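Q:
Got a chain?
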Amino acid sequence: GLQALPSSTNFMFVDLGKNGDAETFRAAMEVQNVLIRGQYRTYKQWSRVSTGRIEDVQMYVNAIPRALEKMHNAIKA
């Protein structure tokens, strides 16, 4: 259910939604050994993610559901 802005670069901006927090998302991804950038400038709900090898992109994609679940549970707590 995440959306990303169109990109012609080696990175993309992923919208984490109105309650999303790029720093929390970054930390949740890091626990899974996926290193991404946290908040970029004032874009709190946008995660800036560099692209890489297909294996790295797949690792990122696989980690997203667990990271979002962790973020959702933290909001509920």
Q: What stands out?
A: The two ends are 22 Å apart (CA to CA). The CA atoms of residues 28 and 66 lie 8 Å apart. Residues 54-76 form the longest helix (23 residues). Helices lie at 22-30, 54-76.
